[in-house]
């Protein structure tokens, strides 16, 4: 798996050393680290500081390589607009997904939105899946996955994409359908959808949850079941959503209280 990992030299990268090592231990992954400078400073003091940060970052990665020999990486130093450079690099390198860090917020409601604008823009515009990871979240092996879906909007290509990305982790996938009304129609359709998913990936099951508050229900379920990552399918916004803002994927991914993988 090839992951593009944008980073800032001003961040304390040691915060996510455990994430980098954890991924390398669980799956065969190559991390392409990308640093984007908006402009090139001509002040000697600033240049000296940047050189020191770069040296420190390289030493950090080399130290991780010594601790975990399977850790594979490359580093790219680019200059340009942040979001556009990230998107272009993802295409050029043909990565499988983009890893975006967010400051998040401790247990926010879905309206307690605090993703950086760059992360939000990448989610909206990227042609590949985006993994949103809160800075303060400690890495745990990906064993339990909650995948939120609409059982009445079936897309075979998205199913295959989800399974292709998640199968290397060997995780159990809990398919989640949340609706304000659950009846015979929903339960009959759920059996059909679950059977199809099981034919593609045996270690999965489907749970139906009755609630009007999709975001809070998904968050509470994930907390209760010890979910390691929530997976969402990005959907096109309806006219109403474009006018007034928000969408299911956008709202749930925005609070980012836990790792979230947004599929295209």
Structural commentary:
It contains nine helices and ten strands. Strand 7 (172-179), helix 6 and strand 8 form a beta-alpha-beta unit. It has two domains: 2-95, HUPs (Rossmann fold, 3-Layer(aba) Sandwich); 144-263, HUPs (Rossmann fold). With 264 residues, the protein is an alpha/beta fold. Mean pLDDT is 81; it is low at 106-115 and 238-246.
Q: Which CATH architecture of the largest domain would you pick?
A: 3-Layer(aba) Sandwich
CATH topology of the largest domain: Rossmann fold
Shape: elongated
Name of the CATH class of the largest domain: Alpha Beta
Q: In percent, how much strand structure appears in the residues?
A: 15-25%
Identify the CATH homologous superfamily of the largest domain. HUPs
The arrangement of helices and strands along the chain is EHEHEHEHEEHEHEHEHHE
| Number of domain units | 2
Helical residues, percent = 40-55%
What Rg is obtained from the alpha carbons, in whole angstroms? 19 Å
Summed over residues and divided by their number, the pLDDT gives a mean of 81
Strand order of the biggest β-sheet: 3-2-1-4-5-10-9-6-7-8
How many DSSP-defined strands? 10
Secondary structure tally, helices: 9
Task: Note the main sheet.
Answer: 10 strands, mixed
Straight-line distance between termini: 17 Å
Indicate the structural class. Answer: alpha/beta
- What are the low-pLDDT stretches, counting only 5+ consecutive residues below 50? 106-115, 238-246
């Amino acid at each position: 798996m090839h992951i593009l990992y944008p980073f800032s030299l001003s961040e304390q990268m040691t915060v996510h050393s455990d994430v980098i090592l954890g991924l390398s231990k669980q799956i065969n992954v190559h991390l392409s680290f990308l640093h984007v400078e908006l402009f090139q400073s001509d002040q000697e003091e600033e240049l000296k500081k940047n050189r020191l940060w770069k040296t420190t970052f390289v030493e950090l990665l080399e130290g991780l390589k010594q601790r975990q020999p399977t850790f594979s990486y490359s580093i790219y130093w680019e200059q340009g607009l942040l979001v556009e450079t990230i998107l272009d690099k993802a295409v050029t390198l043909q990565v499988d997904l983009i890893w975006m860090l967010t400051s998040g917020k401790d247990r926010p409601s879905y309206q307690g939105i605090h993703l950086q604008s760059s992360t939000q823009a990448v989610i909206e515009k990227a042609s590949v899946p985006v993994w949103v990871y809160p800075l303060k979240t400690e890495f745990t092996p990906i064993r339990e996955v909650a995948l939120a879906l609409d059982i009445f909007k079936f897309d075979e290509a998205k199913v295959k994409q989800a399974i292709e990305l998640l199968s290397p982790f060997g995780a159990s996938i809990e398919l989640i359908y949340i609706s304000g009304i659950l009846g015979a129609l929903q339960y009959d359709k759920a059996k059909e959808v679950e059977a199809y998913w099981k034919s593609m990936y045996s270690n999965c099951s489907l749970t139906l949850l009755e609630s009007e508050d999709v975001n809070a229900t998904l968050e509470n379920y994930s907390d209760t079941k010890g979910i390691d990552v929530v997976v969402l399918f990005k959907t096109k916004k309806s006219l109403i959503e474009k006018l007034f803002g928000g969408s299911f994927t956008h709202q749930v991914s925005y609070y980012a209280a836990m790792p979230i993988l947004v599929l295209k």
